Amino acid sequence: MRTLEIRHLRCFLAIAEEGSVTRAAERLRLTQPAVSRTLAALEDALGVRLVDRSTHHLALTAHGRVFRDRASAAVTAFEAALDAGRGSPRPLRVGHPWSAAGPYTTPLLRRWRAAHPSVPLELLRIDDRTAGLTRGLVDAAFLRGPVTAPGLETAVLYEEGQVAAVASDSALAGRSGLALADLADRTIALNTVSGVTTLDLWPSAIRPTSTVTVANTDDWLAAIAADRAVGVSATATADIHPHAGVAYVPLTDAPRLPVTLAWPAGVTDPRVRDLLDLAHEVVAEP
């Protein structure tokens, strides 16, 4: 039997979350053939097919769906075992794909430092949909929109509105508000790696037909500033990611986005519970 390593599990989890070998390779910073070989080696060692490659879109088999949850738990346990072997308390690692906890980020970090001076909190921007959570890179993560990744527990902290992002010299930039219909004939910048906006945001009758896909917030902003496209994001993006070439205009008819704290299911790290309690306190303050 081929020896398996933690990298095999991380690779499979990336494929499962991305639904694509190509996108998983981009996320892991590996070549597509390397990811395909790693998946094949894992399937060979287990003696079962984990991924159905016969469909147009990659899908997990029944074995793959079961193994996904177990692999996620194994990666989390592996990280916990490493932490237990370290001599000094390690930082609490909190990921986010973009905008963290919005306006509550700074007060939350300050309150954590005052309440837990011996446990540093590291806020890490990681460009994937769970901000590194399913890969075992962080202990918890601030996420926006629906959280569909398996093996995670979530708690909604608050909801926020959405804004349109347009080039600062665009005719739309001077408007006090915009509707989704105002963007329907524009090219839409979609962050397919860590963003939550999809074309399904628009009703089918006015759904945009032209898109530009990007892999992170920086490229998203660059495309909009160059007037190649317009974008949609949470209101926090306007404060956390200001850009001289981008104007943010409130969207009057876009649904509000839930902002959640997520963590691996079954994890009993008391620091995550402390963070959740503190986040609720900060959000509730006037």
Walkthrough of the structure:
The structure is a single chain. With 286 residues, the chain is of the alpha/beta class. It has three domains: 6-84, Winged helix-like DNA-binding domain superfamily/Winged helix DNA-binding domain (Arc Repressor Mutant, subunit A); 88-159 and 258-284, D-Maltodextrin-Binding Protein, domain 2, CATH 3.40.190; 162-255, D-Maltodextrin-Binding Protein, domain 2 (3-Layer(aba) Sandwich), CATH 3.40.190. It has eight helices and twelve strands. β1 (51-52) and β2 form a beta hairpin. It is globular and about 60 Å long. It starts with 5 loop residues before the first helix and ends with a helix.
SSE diagram, text form:
Elements: H1 6-18, H2 21-28, H3 32-46, E1 51-52, E2 59-60, H4 62-85, E3 92-96, H5 105-115, E4 121-125, E5 140-144, E6 152-160, E7 162-167, E8 188-191, E9 211-214, H6 217-225, E10 231-234, H7 236-240, E11 246-250, E12 257-264, H8 270-284
Parallel strand pairs: 3-4, 3-5, 8-9
Antiparallel strand pairs: 1-2, 5-12, 6-12, 7-10, 7-11
Helix pairs in contact: 1-2, 1-3, 1-4, 2-3, 5-8
CATH homologous superfamily heading of the largest domain? Periplasmic binding protein-like II
Count of discrete structural domains: 3
Number of strands: 12
Distance between the termini: 60 Å
Q: What strand order characterises the main sheet?
A: 4-3-5-12-6
pLDDT < 50 runs, ≥5 residues: none
Give me the number of helical elements. 8
Summarize the main sheet.
5 strands, mixed
Radius of gyration, CA atoms, in whole angstroms: 20 Å
Q: What is the correct CATH architecture of the largest domain?
A: 3-Layer(aba) Sandwich
Tell me, rounded to a whole number, the average pLDDT.
90
Helix proportion range: 25-40%
Under CATH, the topology of the largest domain can be stated as: D-Maltodextrin-Binding Protein, domain 2
Topology order in helix (H) and strand (E) letters = HHHEEHEHEEEEEEHEHEEH
Domain HTH lysR-type: 4-61
Keywords: DNA-binding, Transcription, Transcription regulation
Pfam family, one: LysR_substrate
Organism: Streptomyces uncialis
